[in-house]
Amino acid sequence: MLNQYDAMLNGVRECDDYWSDVGMSGAIEFLQSFSDEEWAGLKQLVKERPALWQVSCAETLSESADKERSFDLLATLMMIGNDDVTVAALDSINALACDGLDITGKATQLRSAIGKTQSNAGAAVARMLAALEEKLPSL
Fold first, then answer.
1. Residues 54, 80: contact at Cβ < 8 Å?
2. How many helices (H) and strands (E) are present in the chain, helices listed first?
């Protein structure tokens, strides 16, 4: 499954309607069938792939049934150092938190990434970051 997932994400192109309309659903289906070994393999792949692949990966992780593993990969992605990848990872973490993932123990790490991202954020991203920050415990 990991090879098929990787191939799907390698096929994503900028402004790709197919990805958002069809491809993402297929990639999520592969992700849902991952074995423990494939999750470990994905953790290695996310560090090696180009930014568009990483953004697409982050998008699919928001739909994973394994929220803890998804968060771990999203935390890796959010530290890659690319603003687009970080925003995609934070957006997916926000979605997972809305779906019940407890992020309170990850507040320091998330606040750091949010702080670094806010300075370049447009209005929509700023709203998402604020929504995520509201889910974190008070300082």
1. yes
2. 9, 0
Q: Which long-range contacts (CB under 8 A, 24 or more apart) does 109-115 make?
A: 109/75, 110/136, 111/136, 113/78, 113/79, 113/86, 113/89, 114/90
pLDDT of residue 14: 75
d(CA 36, CA 15): 32
Report angle CA 58, 63, 68 to the nearest 5 degrees.
80
CA–CA distance, 53 with 122 (Å, rounded to integer): 22
Residue 107 backbone phi and psi in degrees, to 5 = -60, -45
In tens, the pLDDT along 98-118 reads: 999 999 899 999 999 999 998
Q: pLDDT tens digits, residue range 116-136?
A: 998 889 999 999 999 999 999
